[in-house]
Records
---
Amino acid sequence: MAQVLFTLLMLVILQAVLGFDNLLYISLESKKAPLDQQKRVRKIGILIAIVLRIVLLFVLVSVIDYFQEPFSFLTGEIENVFKFAFNGHSIIVLVGGGFIIYTAIKEIWHMISTSDLNHDVEGDSKRNKSANAVITSIVIMNLVFSFDSILAAIGLTNEIENATTAFIVMAVAIVASGLLMLLMADKISVFLAKNRMYEVLGLFILFIVGIMLVTEGGHLAHLKIFGNEIVPMSKTTFYFVIVVLVIVDIVQGRYQKKLIKEQISDNNSH
């Protein structure tokens, strides 16, 4: 019993830590929905994702070997140039990572190319999505983000001999982490709305998440380019980069405020 409770605690912590980038994506993506529906979109998207995560867990437990074994028709090489052996896991992670990179670059480009900041706050008709479209995006990306965390959960519960108990422990951890996301989603969205300068930081973090997923997908697909194997970005490196980005953003913000104060002081003195 003690082992089961300890494993459950570890799983909830794991799901919470790995869910941070997912939460960031939800907060940024929900801004594309109509303003009066954004809160509802986040809640519905997360609730649907929790249910689908449990379904995905059941599927992975049942057919995990199929996702790990390379597809024969997607295995091959061009001598000394390119080598690959794609499996279900690698394709999901690569596509998800590529989409996140595309989303981050598109949003960053929109920020630097938009001249009217007030118009950008309200959003424009070209960028707005319907509530259902945003919910669909949130659910799909939630599943992509959850794929690795579920596989890690399966690994952590290997020591639990009873398969039914192991499944229940993983399901409870998924529900607990999902409810935590439900509580935090609105707070993060409100924070980003009040501190819009941190949106850039959030988008660059999302960009790094995309790179991490692409390198992981390349590693899972056993990709080799000119004889060089794709090495996945470690979680330690990822969190180190995030800490550096946050520190740089804080220092830059304070330095910018100092420069503005000095400029105002100089203007007043003249």
---
Amino acid sequence: MTGRQQENTAAGPVPVSPEPPLLPPTVDQDPRAASAGKGRPVLRAALRWTAAVVVFAVVGAGTAYGIAGMKRSDVPGLGTASDGRWDYPTLSRPPLPAGSPGPFADENKAQSHFADLRALVLPAPKGAVVDKALAGTDGWLATKGFLAEFSSKDDRDELAQKLTDDGLRHIAARGWTTPDGTRTRIYLLQFDTATVADDLVAKNLGGYAAPARPVVGADSYEEDADFPDAAKVTNISLLAYVEKKPYGAEQVRQAFLTAGDTVAMIVQSRKGTAKAVPFQQTVTLQGQLLG
């Protein structure tokens, strides 16, 4: 979610017995915050976008946060099993280092992510082919790999200087292609404070009706006005766009999430039409991991 984090935790798939009936969404307390007499929101109320059959088990010190879900019917446009959702694994946030607060804890004034940023990138759904080029070195992507998404050389040059000036700490990324031909790219950029991340999106990446800097394959955008409010994540700022007609051989959807000290850019493209449901699903789950 949101933020920026660093260090992959070991994860292993384990069988899961049939799910019990869904309960209403709840908010848990962090054990550390509870001892101080203060609750901290923990993401239990997430969208159940998939009938997941595996769990990402988290190993290590600190606190791991699970991501559960709401009924599909609670989310506009996601009422049936055949609506185009992808089969993502059930997700858990990576553990925080001992004594470290979450990104939106009251005591975390910079809204820093202390977990490993690489472990906060959404995993690929079942059946997808992962783009190895976005794995980078030891999970860190070089800045030029992120800049390659933008179509204009001037934009790439200006952004490169801006990221340097802003003290970019890390970029973690992941990409994949699903069997229907949809290509997904997710980039997490981490800075020292939420103020820097907010400024980057407001002045250099986002815009009211269109991104400030087009990505390759899309020149004309409009706001994704159909993105359901129920799919938005608390504490996470969202800008979502869709390429307008007439577009070329493929359509592009794009979103920026600002989560504390971390900016996420999510791009999906597909020959013909880029479908709305997997885009909304992907953006929301990534936001939940950062939140």
---
Amino acid sequence: MKDKALRLGTRRSKLAMAQSGQVADAVSQVTGRPVELVEITTYGDVSRESLSQIGGTGVFVTALRDALLRGEVDFAVHSLKDLPTAQPEELTLAAIPEREDPRDVIVARDALKFTDLPRGARIGTGSARRMAQLNAYARAHGLDIETVPIRGNVDTRIRYVRDGELDAVVLAAAGLNRIGRIEEVTDFLSVDTVLPAPGQGALAVECTADNAELIAALGELDDPFTRVAVTAERSLLAALEAGCSAPVGALADLLADGQIVKEMRLRGVVGTPDGARMVQLSTTGPVPETHDHALALGRELAAEMLAQGAAGLMGERAH
């Protein structure tokens, strides 16, 4: 068994291949076994429809999970922000490695920063969450922008800017870091301006729940701080009854006093895509010591957001 290659299921996109390759190397190191990438095409990769029409980013996950359950691959790597909040009983998140930069970034023409874009600037994004927060910021600061819905991989999105169709596009810093293109970023958006998607920047390494040996090996890659943070963020998302394409931003960050982590702050936001109505709240408390404590933190903040009218801002609530 020791020499038999482990099969890692991955989407075919350049980003998915890059992040799966990084996990494959780490798994090889902890298990001493070779890891081969098995490319799986998902409906989300071939469909030209908008993500919200085909069921949100969960469409990228379904094909990988099906391959796991059929035994065609031993484990799979997902972008955590794409994972539906309900976890199938037959599968387990064996590892959530240390998180990359969770921020959103702008790639703009002429190396412009977000606040330096010209009046009427056209900014491309496929995310209602990003649209809501960019438009809200623009309203509050007297900027005149137009958010334009787009789809496609990183190359396609950046090409819109290079070809002059758009003034800027919004992407995730983590993805650009992983494919070695972070130098193309013209502005990092502070999380005070745009809260990221729940789990953004983190990866999820998933395998079948009955494979104890593999779960133990993959567990070596787990980062406990990242896990409690993203658990709280995803709990907030689930409690708002929102799918992964809903306009919800959330970030849990650890507040340290010197080297000692003292508390965790969870922030959440939901808004209409035009940015006219927003509910944004935060809560700070002790770092959750258990999975259930992290879940409770997310649920509590979601309850406060719902009390302030968050449900009405999400359009069709996902069930």
---
Amino acid sequence: MPGRSSTSRLSPDGFAYGAAAGLVVDLLVGDPRRGHPVAAFGRAAAAVENRLHHDHRGWGALHTAVCAGSTVALGALAARAVRDRPAAAVALTAASVWAVVGGTTLGREARAVGGALAAGDLDVARERLPHLCGRDPQSLDGPAMARAVVESVAENTSDAVVGALFWGAVAGVPGLLGFRAVNTLDAMVGHKSPRHRRFGWASARLDDVAGWPGARLTAVLATVAGGDPRGALKAWRADAAKHPSPNAGPVEASFAGALGIRLGGTLSYGGRVEHRPVLNGEGRAVEVADIDRAVRLSRRVTGLTLAACVGGRLIIGALAASTRKRRNA
């Protein structure tokens, strides 16, 4: 039916309104301290893990399918329920964007660590650092914590903002929720601990696939929005492939080049020491002031991402409408 097909999915304008409103809400209130939807998903995923856990990739793949698949299905059902009500569809998109992005809280936590470092209070900085990343804060001095914060801001700009908006533009509410589910599962079970080395393999690989386009878009926009586009592009091309993560590499390298700093090197996760390649080796060492510069760059990238996703949907919608007109002519 023509009337039904025209409202079966959120229009490009509807996505723009909903995504912009969701980002504004995130900017104003950030993440709630209690009752966050992502935390609720994490508890549910942990309960499923307790039921399904075996030291086997197949059981881990089932865990990933159940948790991520049910989240996508829930998003699809919610979108279907409001497909004939444009205002409700915009509100659902706004609520979903607010629930899955975390740019404001990312900036607040980064600046909290930066403020403690600037004041010379390493104990407070070590106390706040786990809010951003899983590194062992007791093994880090001030400069190492500053570097860890900048790297976390870069990586989480892709994971907590750009990737979610990209998949929202592609697949609407199911894409938004599904990407956040996959990313959360990777954080929960995708690391190479003895318990999750095999069980978390599927979640880690799916996160690599889902995060691939958002990471490249983040790198492109960081190159455009940073203070040194040529340096960002050079670092991205030269060093991204050296990083053990296929998605963190382009993001961290482009941020390093854009900010004129060195990232990478030795780090520690729960007592496990890793020696990662240096990114943008020609840059200077990270300073505390670079934390605020990284947060500002992250915000510029967020704004450009919204514009790119909305613009992409408008262009695709116009091309689809033109194709339909030619077919009906």
